Amino acid sequence: xxxxxxxxxxxxxxxxxxxxxxxxxxxxxxxxPRGKPPRPTKVYFEAADIADLRKAKDRLGDLLSAAGYELxx
Length: 73
Fold this sequence. Notes:
alpha+beta, 73 residues, two-stranded antiparallel ribbon, single chain, 2 helices
């Protein structure tokens, strides 16, 4: 998943930490390599089921929106 560079990495990491607490998405792993501004931040998800990947991506978008950051302005 590619996230616009205007969203701070700190906000993305906080949203991912909240995502980890969701028991429904306990099987989903994620990796966020070190960013290189002004390039987009990349988050790589890994799960056994594609539906879980979609849920994790949507939930991350919801968490960022709730924090005041729009993924798709």
